[in-house]
Amino acid sequence: MNCIRVLRVTSLLTFGVFAAYAQPGAERAAAQTEPILVYNAQHASLTQAWVNGFTRDTGIKVTVRNGSDAELGNQLVQEGSLSPADVFLTENSPAMTLVDAAGLFAPVNPDTLTQVREGFRPSNGRWVGIAARTTVFAYNKNRLTPAQLPKSLLDLADPAWKRRWGASPTGADFQAIAGALLEIKGEAATAAWLKAMKQNAVAFRGNVAAMKGVNSGEIEGAVIYQYYYFGDQARTGENSNNTALHYFKNRDPGAFVSVSGGGVLASSKRAAQAQTFLKWVTGKGGQDILRTGDSYEYAVGVGAQSNPKLVPLADLQAPDVDPSKLNSKKVIALMMEAGLL
């Protein structure tokens, strides 16, 4: 009888030990079959096209949670290592820098990094560029001639431009442009330009609203990204038919090309699948969607072609800016000091 009890106890203990070791493996297996969760601050339609192609090609399912750069970036910092997210995608790089500075990204796999052109990935390799867009001056063709256009973004600080141009200062797009100005020209020049902007510019809520203001003649020009114009032209053109784009070029701060980023969270329980997703987006499948789709964002993959309607990246003469060095906190502080936020 005692022997039977001992055997039973031993069996239970053995089962308990086995279960203790088996459970983590079971959890890992379950995690590998669950959808990866993407915190997405990119345009929802573009990310959905990426997700559809990725799932079709790999069989890996994806759940997307949409929000803005600042909203999701700050949420990830608050969630820390307890975040359920596996991947973070942004429109602009400052939100990536925010999350990276908190130590929340895993290194991107080297074979993914090498798929992306230099200049479109940060020097530290903890996230990677997935798309890009360029700064432009959208202007009303009936109110300005090419000869009257500003030669530099800095020219818009001149009192002669007072109430003649606009932008959307509260958006992540403009704050990335201001971040590039800070990196290129330094704090004093950026602070002075932002203070002049407060006096000169008409503030809009969103780049589309700013472009509408240009198109209607409310203002003569606006600092936006190029894809708003091309997207509207591809539809009805009702918000852009009176509008043309001026490219500053000449390494001017107004020729800044903003990098959309993607990173894998270090806390991800589906890290292998998350890395696979990032590799697919930066590879042929994901970059072809930029060429053939209606996002009108630039492809950043090595050898990848952008939509043929866009001015080629090489012709933009953009300034060299390491996307990981765009300081969103300092930019916000300067913009608040200038009264723009």
Short description:
With 341 residues, this protein is of the alpha/beta class. Helices cover 44% and strands 14% of the residues.
Please provide a written account of the structure.
The chain is of the alpha/beta class and 341 residues long. It has helices at 2-33, 44-58, 69-79, 94-101, 110-113, 172-185, 187-200, 207-216, 226-234, 271-282, 284-292, 328-338; strands at residues 36-40, 62-66, 87-89, 128-140, 165-167, 201-203, 221-225, 243-246, 257-264. The longest helix has 32 residues, at 2-33.
Please compute the radius of gyration using only Cα atoms.
24 Å
Secondary-structure element order, N to C = HEHEHEHHEEHHEHEHEEHHH
Query: What's the total number of strands?
Result: 9
Shape: globular
Q: Quick check: average pLDDT? A: 91
Unreliable residue runs: 1-31
Ends distance: 80 Å
Please bin the fraction of helical residues: 40-55%
Largest sheet report: 9 strands, mixed
What's the tally of helices?
12
**What is the strand content?**
5-15%
Helix/strand structural class: alpha/beta
Q: Which tags fit this structure?
A:
alpha/beta; 341 residues; globular
How do the strands and helices of this protein lay out in sequence?
Blueprint: H1 2-33, E1 36-40, H2 44-58, E2 62-66, H3 69-79, E3 87-89, H4 94-101, H5 110-113, E4 128-140, E5 165-167, H6 172-185, H7 187-200, E6 201-203, H8 207-216, E7 221-225, H9 226-234, E8 243-246, E9 257-264, H10 271-282, H11 284-292, H12 328-338
Parallel strand pairs: 1-2, 1-3, 5-6, 5-7
Antiparallel strand pairs: 3-9, 4-7, 4-8, 4-9
Helix pairs in contact: 2-11, 3-4, 6-7, 6-12, 7-12
